[in-house]
């Protein structure tokens, strides 16, 4: 009897120790799992949502949703470019792309170099094209302009890749920097990155484009000389100053010639800036074909804003208002002396004809 009472406490002690060990092991497993879960969340937040070196002049417009294939997407528009979006500026700092689509496929997405570039032209409609393309679920587009090939090339391709949005297999990564089209060194640099990259150029009547360019310039620097003064080397004899940037950019044939030295014509798609206003769905359809994508962005996505004189996107899912581009889009141009416009049209006529011959497209500019 005494032996029985002697062994019973020992059995109870062993059971208590085992129970404690089991509880401690369970707690340990829970703590480890919780730690990895929190660490993963923090890493995701830091890598995807952090924005470094962000000046106060940059803005992010949120609340822009659209529904594609039964899924709700939310876009953040990086408002920073030389095409006139609010916050644009020559000295602006690059913002990494802000990831917003947290689908269960995100873990398979990677950052890669772009397969398509919108290389020009300034004030041609590049911002509109980019925003319209962003509706497509198979396009991942960088909202800001990285200016890699013209300003930041020394930073290297790894830096450039880090600027890109994450993309799944089958998605096309696109970036837009209109200055590429007119920068001498850019075609060779782009070719060094990829000889297969697809190039998109939005072109517009060069006279109208020049006036739009000047209108944007004086909105920032209102005390510069008049357009009529800057457009001429000598107004008495009518000699045009073709090196003045707003006019020089419109020498499309001259700039395209450099690109054709590196890339075949079939790899360069030209978008009509006028067509992007009058028939955005038609122009978007051709761009989607060029990129090898299904025509998902169609006329059902657009309506014409009579006040702005510009197409806008119809009210997307989850948003209370339709989506139009910034106030700098559709801005009223300054009035120019008709005689100056006539002389500019005469100046550009042979350049436009050469451009039509090089491209096999007649844009019908006066």
Automatic annotation (TrEMBL):
GO terms for cellular component: Golgi membrane. Its EC number is 2.8.2.-. The active site is at residue 123. InterPro entries: NST/OST, P-loop_NTPase, Sulfotransferase_dom. Residues 114-351 form the Sulfotransferase domain. Pfam families: Sulfotransfer_1. 3'-phosphoadenylyl sulfate binds at residues 123-127, 204, 212, 329-333. Disulfide bonds join 312-324. Keywords: Disulfide bond, Glycoprotein, Golgi apparatus, Membrane, Signal-anchor, Transferase, Transmembrane, Transmembrane helix. The keyword Disulfide bond applies. The chain crosses the membrane at residues 21-39. It is found in: Endomembrane system; Golgi apparatus membrane. It is a single-pass type II membrane protein. GO terms for molecular function: [heparan sulfate]-glucosamine 3-sulfotransferase activity. Belongs to the sulfotransferase 1 family. PANTHER family: HEPARAN SULFATE SULFOTRANSFERASE, SULFOTRANSFERASE. This is Sulfotransferase.
